Amino acid sequence: MFRMTDWTSDLQTVAFFAAVVPLLYYVYWRIANRRLLQLAAKIPGPPGLPLLGNLLEFTGSPTEIFEKLVEKSYQYEDVIKVWFGPRLFVFLTNPVDIEVLLTSTEHIEKSVEYDFMKPWLGDGLLISSGQKWFTHRKVIAQTFHLNILRSFLGKFNENAKKLVKYFEDETGNEFDCRRYMCKYTAETLIDTVMGADKDQLGFESPVYSGATTKLCELVHLRHTKLHFRSDLLFNSTKHGFEHKKFVSLVHDFSAKVIKFKKSQRELLKPSPFIEKFDDIRKEDKSLTHYEKSTGISYGQSSGLKDDLDNEVIGRKKKCAFLDTLLEKEANREVFSMKDVQDQIDTLMFEGHDTTAGVSSMFLCLMATNLDVQAKCVEELEKIFGDSDRDVTFEDTYEMKYLERCVMETLRIYSPVPVIARNLKKELTLVTNNITLPVSTTVIVAIFKLHRREDLYPNSEKFNPDNFIQEKTAARSFYSFIPFSAGPRSCVGRKYAILKLKVVLSTILRNYQITTSCPMESWKLQADITLKRTDGFKIKLIPRKNA
Ligand code: HEM
């Protein structure tokens, strides 16, 4: 027979366990992580709640979370600690500490947040680690040598001219330019790095770029919403189904590219757009001279050097990215077919989303800084006069002011606002000799670093003079890292800068750019790459002499 006393005692037992089990776990966790807690106590940061840490302070939409993080960063100086539940996150904003982390060959493992991209990018260069990353990086970095990039100039120009033509449909309208820039960057990647033919592949840029934009949003949703971190929960929601659909769309494309390239190889046709270089050393001498004379190392305007800057890459014939990987795969060296596909997916994402973002931002900045735009155009008129000829490699050296504008865009709106590493060993910083414990997630806050008032006075203002030589020489290399730095820096940075110079100069030679949206009204969103939530709106007016 049911008795009231049984029922209340059951309830008391449940309540007892509900309160005691988490408490016991918390006590156990604190004992097991004594060293972590001791070291964390010495790091400045907002006080948090037991178990939850600072979780409740960072809720809301991705834009709101980004704004809260930036706001919080102004309350602290160089190193900031935040607890998200039991996980310790440390944000670095001082170049001296960033240098310690990024130059290390030990702390190169990405944080677990990157794992949410695994179903999409597999073991591609962005995510992989250890020996696999090391051997793949060595091969891929060589395929971005400047001499190989030179051979892409024809395609950069051809596609830039097509873009200018597409823009004719929009003249007089205020429109979001990002989708056009996505089309340009994605199609040009296929034509160059992949050495394929976008038309024969039936490539549809809005579908592909739409899928990657959506995938970024979904991955970021998993970063910001605790309940979506579990694969089981996420995969059973509508977001999980959407994620699966977009991943298979992207993978279908890379499978198609491989099939296309393999059929080309079987026909014994070399890749149609890729020239091969026999003696790379001979050409390198002039590049070294250029780099010495200007201090500019394509993208690392402060002269930072790494494996991409190795002048000597051997006498063997070198060819572009996908030809090289397929050759290796056919010879059963280093890459399996799955590896090749992972690397295509990685490069298609890294190579198109970032470059589309920065070029769209550049156009918006030109539209809101008409004096700067006029100076760029003046420089281009000096180089090209009235001619509508293609941009040559040598012309890109002459675009010194335009390059400073690109650098300043990368500073103020860094397309990758943060990067993150997982510490497998303790790391001692320069700032106050702080030691970061094992398992800390270290965030390099590029967005905040690039807006430090001590490095860039009046830092919210778009000022290309931040990159005149005296100023860059006076700053640490690590105060400007849009492409990261050190062993895991961006392999595509020289490619990106060269392509940006060609396409942006071609647009400026053909159109005057305006907008009705002042910079102060822009809303930013940092889902993997930086975007404007309100759209990249510009208006184009054809230039008379174009
Ligand atoms: C303006 C354009 C670009 C920017 C701002 C940019 C920025 C970055 C950053 C910050 C990283 C480090 C990411 C991290 O540590 O989490 C990175 C890595 C990488 N980027 Fe880029 N990137 C750009 C263009 C490109 C292009 C055009 C390609 C290839 C075609 C590319 C391929 C890669 C790859 C493969 C990695 C991973 C490298 C490794 O871990 O060894 N990127 N990029």
Automatic annotation (TrEMBL):
<dbReference type="InterPro" id="IPR002401">
    <property type="entry name" value="Cyt_P450_E_grp-I"/>
</dbReference>
<keyword id="KW-1133">Transmembrane helix</keyword>
<keyword id="KW-0408">Iron</keyword>
<keyword id="KW-0349">Heme</keyword>
<keyword id="KW-0472">Membrane</keyword>
<dbReference type="InterPro" id="IPR036396">
    <property type="entry name" value="Cyt_P450_sf"/>
</dbReference>
<keyword id="KW-0560">Oxidoreductase</keyword>
<keyword id="KW-0503">Monooxygenase</keyword>
<dbReference type="GO" id="GO:0005506">
    <property type="term" value="F:iron ion binding"/>
</dbReference>
<feature type="binding site" description="axial binding residue">
    <location>
        <position position="490"/>
    </location>
    <ligand>
        <name>heme</name>
    </ligand>
</feature>
<feature type="transmembrane region" description="Helical">
    <location>
        <begin position="12"/>
        <end position="29"/>
    </location>
</feature>
<dbReference type="InterPro" id="IPR001128">
    <property type="entry name" value="Cyt_P450"/>
</dbReference>
<dbReference type="GO" id="GO:0004497">
    <property type="term" value="F:monooxygenase activity"/>
</dbReference>
<dbReference type="GO" id="GO:0020037">
    <property type="term" value="F:heme binding"/>
</dbReference>
<dbReference type="InterPro" id="IPR050196">
    <property type="entry name" value="Cytochrome_P450_Monoox"/>
</dbReference>
<dbReference type="InterPro" id="IPR017972">
    <property type="entry name" value="Cyt_P450_CS"/>
</dbReference>
<comment type="similarity">
    <text>Belongs to the cytochrome P450 family.</text>
</comment>
<keyword id="KW-0812">Transmembrane</keyword>
<keyword id="KW-0479">Metal-binding</keyword>
<protein>
    <recommendedName>
        <fullName>Cytochrome P450</fullName>
    </recommendedName>
</protein>
<dbReference type="GO" id="GO:0016705">
    <property type="term" value="F:oxidoreductase activity, acting on paired donors, with incorporation or reduction of molecular oxygen"/>
</dbReference>
<dbReference type="Pfam" id="PF00067">
    <property type="entry name" value="p450"/>
</dbReference>
